[in-house]
Amino acid sequence: MTDARHLTLCEAADAIARGTLTSESLVAQCIEAAKALNPRLNAVIALEADAALARARDLDRERAAGRSRGPLHGVPLAHKDMYYRAGKVSSCGSKIRRNFVPKITSSLVARLESAGAVTIGRLHMAEFAMGPTGHNAHFGRCRNPWDESRITGGSSSGSGAAVAARLVFASLGSDTGGSVRLPAAMCGVVGLKPTQGLLATDGMMGLSESLDCPGPLARSSRDIARLLDVMTGRPHEAALDGSIAGLVLGVPTSFYWDDLAAPVAHCLDRARRVLEGLGARFVDVAIPEHGELADLADAVWTPEAAALHLPWLRTRPGDYGAQVRARLTHGLAISATAYLRARQLRTLALEAMLAGPLSACDALFVPVMRSTVPTDAATDIAAGTAMRKVLAEIAALTRPLSYLGLPGLVTPAGFDPAGLPIGLQLIGRPLGEPTLLRIANAFEQETRIVAQAPPASPVT
Amino acid sequence: MPASSNTFARDWLRLTQGIDPDDDMAARTDALIRSSHAAVDRAADKACARQGSETLFDVRMERFASILAGRNP
Known about the structure:
Chain A is an alpha/beta fold. Chain A is built from 15 helices and eleven strands.
């Protein structure tokens, strides 16, 4: 029998609902897989095996009695270790909060659990969600299931690795500058940064009140749609089906396509041809200047983060990893006038995008990264100035979108010659998630790239 | 990095933020003050030029959230 961990979230939930699969067996398989693989991947900070299995048994009894909690009944999930659950540790990937026990529960986690999800543990993340690689000075590196010498991307590193390795069916990450989209792309799964404000941020560790954006990672756009249904109360899964013929995809004539690595360009070209074959129409679109948007994003999020961290920066500077403390230092240096002007410019930049390229197409079609997945060594602090260049480049195509507040969906587009995933990024209008999901779902159904599992996800 | 730049950043961090920085932190802070503020100034100048205005005087930040939420700002 096929390992049930290789089902998608929707397939697993539907099998449990039909009675052909139990939550207990599924949760047990995921926990066993996590125990077996985590020494290699380091994707899980803590498993909660006993509590998860007990809840799964309760849910199986309810289903046998004809009751269902909702569309996620019995499905195992785990989230980036910054989503609070009252009475349970949330380390935020840090030494400073290693034993922090919140008094409140994230409303997103509460909604997922109310719909029947089983939380099986807490997942690896960059320290305080600052870092695009998956490195963590306190918890060690998270490793990519496709090649353990490569980074996972971050800061939702454990979410990307655990979903790809079939340890859980989906995970909440957070995206302030690319932290959902980068690990989704590098680990070969689907990730959504929704429209700023669509998903509630209460009970979630704060980094930047202007840019923080919770977002799900899963193994199909249909899974993402179902999670959005639960978290927003608006129908997304029902809007997935149907042809994408006639939809217009815009290809920016500058910035996003500059200096792409050959495997990335080749892969996205093939993806474009697939979408054209499905009836989508591609048009070139001019975009407003993007070169300074990353700097403007930094002028917004870094002082907001520094303001949150200031007491610890004063009293416990040695308890931060060197890279994180350096990034917070940036925030200390931004003047109030520069911060406020960067926020004012955000409005103008958004208006220019809506009046320009996004008035001429249904979504933009762009890469997630210019390069293929970097190695651990190339992004290690020991690599010195070369490392800083690589780090700056990793999030170059994701940070502008965070500044603009628009939705961005990443889905696997193929693989490079070394077998590492390459993602494509669809950028939508405000609240345009249904359109992005519909396009990605059609692509996934046609190519089945998203169904391919990495080597580090053995069938047990 | 000129010593005077580091001194400025060191004093600035200590006096305004209550943080006593090491050399690397002071040097980095000095570089970031210059580069980030220059980037914001450049972007503001361009935006004003496009709008034909001298300043960002009439930009209201709540307009951003209104646009994303689909409300008429």
